[in-house]
Each structure stands twice: as C-alpha cells, then as structure tokens.
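S.,

Sequence below, as promised.
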Amino acid sequence: MRGTVKAVAALSVTALLAAGCAKPAASISAPAKFKACMVTDIGGINDKSFNQSSWQGMLDAQQAAPAKIHAQNLQSTSESDYAKNISAFIAQKCGIIVTVGFLMGTATEAAAKANPSQKFAIVDCSYASQCLTGPKESNIDQLVYDTAQDAFLGGYLAAGMTRTGKVATYGGEKFGTVTIYMDGFWDGVQYYNSKHHTHVRVLGWSEPSQQGVFANSFTDTGAGQRIANTFINAGADIIFPVAGNVGQGSAAAVKTADQGGKRVSMFWVDTDGCVSDAPYCQYFMTSVEKGITASVRNAVLSAVNDQFQGGTYVGNLTNGGAALAPFYAPWRTLVPAALKNELAQVKSGIEDGTIATPTKSPV
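The prediction came back faster than expected:
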C-alpha cells in the first residue's frame, strides 16, 4: 500500500514536471472585422435623403455578413470636416471608405491619390460629372444614377395630374446631380404636352436654358418653405424639391396649403418619402428614387469579398438604380388607371431607347 502511494506520488510529480516543461497553448482570438466606414455630407445621417440611404446601405452590408463587417460613420458638420474625417478613417485602416455627395469629390480624390491601396466609394460623384477631375484613380468606386429617367416619368405624372396647369421644381445647389433630376422632370412635362396637346408649365426650371430656382443649401428648411409658398402662390399645385432636407420645409408648406383647401401635393427625392418621412406621406404623390442603398451595400460587399474593381456604376430604370416609388394612399386610387398605363409605356420606351431623356446633365 505504501509502495503504491509512492508510485502514484512519483507519477504525479513527473506529470507536473512534464506540464511545466510543455509549451503553453496558443491563444485563439477572433479575426478583426472588416471596417466599412462612411463619411456623411453636411446634411447628416438622418437627412431623409442620400446620407440616410447611404448609411442604410452600410447597415445592409453589415447585416449580410455580420461576422465579417462592422459599419461605422463620421458625420460632417461643415465642408472642412470632409478631409479630416476621411483621414481619421484611413488611420483606422478601414477596408472601404464611402463618402457621400458631390461636395466630397475633391477630398475623396485627394485621399485616393495619396493612399492608392485604400478602397473608396463615393455616392453621386464621378469623372463623367466632373465631380472628380482626374486622372482616374482605380481605387474609387463611383456610384451615380441616371435620374433623368425616373424624373422624366415624374414630370409626365405631374403633367397628367395637375389641375392648375402649373407644376414646379427647384434645387438645393446647382450641381449636375441636382439638375439632372430637374432636366428629366421638365422634359417629362414637355413630352406629356406633346402627346396630349396640353400646355402644362414648369415653374422653377428650364431645361434648355439651365436656369432656375435654388435654395443654395441642402439643410435650410426655411428656404424650402419660402420657395414652396412662392410656387403655390403662383398657382403650382405639384412641387418637386431636389434639395435633400430642404424639402422638409416644402412639405410643411404643402401640408399647410392643402389643409387650407388649395389641394397641393409634392414629390420626394432620392428615397421613398413615405418610408423616410412617413408623417408627410399623404402629401407625396410619389418619390423619384435613386438606388443608393443597394449600390452602397454592393460596393461594401465587393470590397470585403476581394471583388472591388473601382470604376463607375450607373443606376437606371432597367437595373433598378432609378425608379418611381409605389403609389400610397390616397394616390393609389387618385392616379387614374389610364395614366398609370401611360407611365408603364413611357418607362418601356425609355428603357428600349425609343424615348430620349435629357443628356445635358452628366451622370
């Protein structure tokens, strides 16, 4: 018995010595997540327009690959924040940096030139639109949208629905990504006039002269309200703001006028207004949308899956990158079936090239 105890003790000591001499087990840590980073324009993350749509695309990419992707953003409160925020994300070794808006072209291009291995994507900006000046950098994925196409449908719809014979549009600032909407809207009205022998007027913009009304802001809702009231007082009963959050002021003016018995409505821009700004939904006849969310999602996923190629994505009616939003109540029943059928025919004509949309505003 005593011998057995000694033997066990000896074995225990030997085991302990062996354990002490063994190499420690390697620690297992989870791989670092791919950082998908977004810098907003000055409208902010909740602008109910292109910043908000872009951020949703980032979140959708994260949801598609939650084990791989961590989405984060930095918000710009002034144009001086653009380069600073981009630099902060470069220092954090982001897998892709998405910048939002025409105004961010210069800062994005400078960062891309200085950091050729860093992947970038930019919304509403391309070399074709001269937002990026070149020479072309292969590490910038340009996400742009031929919104002349769906805005043309919007203009046709507005001309078919106006009771006063006057509709209106205005922009935030005079950029190609803004005026392309206004061109399409203007030409859609003219096309309706030519088909129906009507004389619907467009207040706020002329496609031939490229002259019109601008708020000179994408955040000043007071300007949006004043501009809309001017149009309403001039007889317009459908208004199409192409001005981001400035359109909130126009929505307030339309609501007040409609409740006062003037029966005024409007279109929203970039996003489906009945989703992004539901309290005003009943005043939105439709929304002239960009497929920003899907294109940003795809840009992030291409980067995380080593499929990033740079270049230019152009959203249009055919690929879903430009579209009119569905009709909601009360417009679902107020828009006549005949006009809906005409819109479908015009859409097909734009897609197959038999109906020309404007070419003056580059994408």
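Confidence is low (pLDDT under 50) at residues 1-30.

Coffee later?
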